[in-house]
C-alpha cells in the first residue's frame, strides 16, 4: 500500500511538473494567443482549416460545372477548315482539271436526343444538390465535433478545479487523522480510510488532467493548429446561468409532444442526408430514363457550312476535231468548273431513330435496369435513415430535459452538500462525529459538483446534437 502510494505521488509530481512546463511555454507565446477563444470563433477556425470541408466545396464547384457541361450539349460544334485536292483522269469531267482548293469559313453542326438531353441535365442538377448538401453535412459534423471538444475542455477544467479543492480538504483531514492515530485518538482503520480516500482523489485528478490534455490536443488538431498550442476558452460559455433549463422544465407534456413533432418535421425538410437521398433517387431515375431515351426518342441533327472553292485548271490542248464540239465542251467546263474562287454553302436537317434499341438484348436496357435497382436501394436507405432519425431526435430531447432537470436539482444538492460538509468539519473537530462520516460528507459534495458539471456539459451538447439531428447550422432548439 505504501509503495503504491509513493508511486502515485511520484506520478502526480511528474504531471504537475508537465503542467507547469506547459504553463511556461504558454507564457512565451505572444499576447494574442492569450485572447479568449469563443465557441463561434473555434467553429469558424475549424471550418477554415478542415480539408474535408474544402474538398466538399470543390465538389460543389465541380458539380456546377457538370450542369454547365450538360447545357453545353445544346451549343453547336463550330469549326473552320481548308483543304487541297489533287486528282487526274483520262476522260470525263475530272480530266479537265488537276484538282481544287476548298476553304470552309464556318461549319456548324449539332445533334441532340431530346429525352437524353433533358434527363442528363436533371441528373446533373440532382448531383449538384447532392454535393451542396454533402458540404452542409460536413459543416454540421465539424460544428458538433468542435462544440463537444470545446465543452469537454471546459468540463475537465471544472473537474480539475473541484478535485484540487477536494484533495486539499482530504489532505488536511489525513494530516489530522495521522496525528491522532499516532497518539491513539483514531484507529488504524480510520487512518487507512483517510489515506485511501486522499489517494483515490489524486487518481481522479490525474484522470481529469489526462482527459483535459487529450481534449485540448484533439481540439487543436481539429482546428488545424499545433497539438500543443495553448487554448484560452470562454469559461462563461458553460457556467453562465441563462435560465433556459427552468424554461425547459416548464414544458408540459403537450408542449414536449409538439416540439418533438416539430423537430421531426423540420429534420425531414432540412437534414442534408435526407435531401441527398432524395436527390440521389431522382438522379438515378433520370439516368435510367436517359438510357431509355436512346430508343424512345429520335436524335435530331442539323448542320451547315459556308465557304469558297477554286478549281485548279488543266492546260488541255487536245481537240476532238470538231470545232463546234470543242466549243460546247469549253462552255460546259466553264459552268461545271468555273475559274477563280466560288462561294458555296449547304444546310442539312434531319433525324435518326435507333430502332435497334427496342430489342431486349440491347445494352441500354440493362444499364437502365441497373439505375432502377439503385433507385430501390436508395428508397430502403431512406426508410432506415428516417427511422433512426426519429429515434435520435427523441433521445436528444429526453437528454435535454434530463440535463435541465439535473442542473436544477444539483444546484440545490451542492448547497446542501456544502452546508453538510461545513457542519461535518465543525463536528469532526469537536469530536462529535468520527472520520468516516466526515469523509462521507466530502464525497457527497464531490459527487454533487461532478453531477452538476456533467449536467452542464450534457445540456450544451444535447442542444448541439438536436440541431445536428434537425439539420440546423447552430444553436436553436
Summarize the structure.
This protein is of the alpha+beta class and 477 residues long. It has helices at 2-27, 39-48, 51-71, 114-182, 188-222, 236-239, 244-249, 253-270, 272-296, 323-336, 363-429, 435-470, and strands at 77-86, 97-112, 299-313, 341-352. It folds into 3 domains: 1-35; 37-75 and 117-295 and 364-470, Up-down Bundle (Outer membrane efflux proteins (OEP)); 77-112 and 299-352, no CATH class.
Can you walk through the features of this model?
The chain is α+β, with helices and mostly antiparallel strands and 477 residues long. It folds into three domains: 35 residues; 325 residues, Outer membrane efflux proteins (OEP) (Up-down Bundle), CATH 1.20.1600.10; 90 residues, no CATH class. 69% of the residues lie in helices and 11% in strands. It has twelve helices and four strands, in the order αααββααααααβαβαα. The chain has a four-stranded antiparallel beta sheet. Helix 4 runs antiparallel to helix 5, helix 4 packs antiparallel against helix 9 and helix 9 packs antiparallel against helix 11. The N terminus is likely disordered.
Amino acid at each position: 500500500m505504501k509503495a503504491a502510494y509513493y508511486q502515485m505521488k511520484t506520478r502526480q509530481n511528474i504531471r504537475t511538473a508537465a503542467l507547469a512546463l506547459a504553463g511556461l511555454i504558454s507564457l512565451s507565446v505572444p499576447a494574442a494567443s492569450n485572447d479568449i477563444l469563443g465557441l463561434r470563433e473555434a467553429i469558424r477556425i475549424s471550418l477554415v482549416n478542415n480539408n474535408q470541408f474544402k474538398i466538399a466545396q470543390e465538389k460543389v464547384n465541380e458539380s456546377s460545372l457538370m450542369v454547365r457541361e450538360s447545357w453545353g450539349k445544346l451549343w453547336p460544334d463550330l469549326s473552320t477548315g481548308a483543304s487541297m485536292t489533287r486528282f487526274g483522269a483520262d476522260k470525263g469531267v475530272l480530266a479537265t482539271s488537276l484538282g481544287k482548293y476548298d476553304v470552309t469559313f464556318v461549319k456548324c453542326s449539332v445533334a441532340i436526343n431530346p429525352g437524353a438531353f433533358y434527363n442528363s441535365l436533371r441528373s446533373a442538377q440532382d448531383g449538384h444538390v447532392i454535393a451542396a448538401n454533402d458540404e452542409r453535412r460536413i459543416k454540421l459534423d465539424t460544428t458538433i465535433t468542435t462544440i463537444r471538444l470545446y465543452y469537454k475542455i471546459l468540463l475537465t477544467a471544472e473537474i480539475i478545479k473541484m478535485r484540487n479543492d477536494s484533495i486539499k480538504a482530504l489532505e488536511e483531514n489525513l494530516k489530522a487523522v495521522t496525528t491522532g492515530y499516532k497518539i491513539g485518538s483514531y484507529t488504524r482503520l480510520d487512518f487507512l480510510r483517510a489515506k485511501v480516500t486522499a489517494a483515490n482523489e489524486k487518481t481522479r485528478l490525474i484522470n481529469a488532467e489526462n482527459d483535459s490534455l487529450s481534449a485540448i490536443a484533439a481540439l487543436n488538431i481539429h482546428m488545424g493548429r499545433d497539438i500543443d498550442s495553448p487554448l484560452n476558452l470562454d469559461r462563461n460559455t458553460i457556467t453562465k446561468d441563462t435560465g433556459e433549463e427552468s424554461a425547459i422544465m416548464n414544458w408540459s407534456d403537450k408542449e414536449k409532444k409538439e416540439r418533438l413533432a416539430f423537430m421531426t418535421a423540420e429534420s425531414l425538410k432540412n437534414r442534408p442526408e435526407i435531401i441527398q437521398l432524395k436527390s440521389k433517387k431522382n438522379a438515378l431515375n433520370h439516368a435510367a430514363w436517359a438510357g431509355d431515351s436512346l430508343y424512345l426518342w429520335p436524335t435530331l441533327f442539323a448542320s451547315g457550312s459556308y465557304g469558297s472553292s477554286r478549281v485548279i485548271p488543266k492546260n488541255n490542248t487536245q481537240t476532238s476535231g470538231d470545232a463546234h464540239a470543242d466549243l460546247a465542251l469549253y462552255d460546259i467546263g466553264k459552268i461545271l468548273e468555273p475559274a477563280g474562287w466560288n462561294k458555296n454553302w449547304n444546310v442539312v436537317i434531319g433525324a435518326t431513330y435507333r430502332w435497334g434499341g427496342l430489342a431486349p438484348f440491347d445494352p441500354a436496357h440493362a444499364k437502365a435496369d441497373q439505375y432502377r435497382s439503385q433507385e430501390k436501394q436508395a428508397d430502403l436507405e431512406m426508410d432506415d435513415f428516417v427511422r433512426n432519425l426519429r429515434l435520435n431526435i427523441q433521445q436528444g430531447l429526453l437528454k435535454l430535459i434530463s440535463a435541465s432537470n439535473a442542473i436544477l436539482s444539483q444546484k440545490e444538492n451542492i448547497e446542501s452538500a456544502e452546508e453538510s460538509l461545513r457542519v461535518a468539519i465543525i463536528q469532526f473537530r469537536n469530536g462529535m462525529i468520527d472520520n468516516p462520516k466526515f469523509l462521507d460528507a466530502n464525497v457527497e459534495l464531490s459527487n454533487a459538483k461532478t453531477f452538476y458539471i456533467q449536467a452542464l456539459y450534457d445540456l450544451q451538447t444535447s442542444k448541439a446534437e438536436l440541431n445536428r439531428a434537425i439539420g440546423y447550422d447552430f444553436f436553436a432548439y
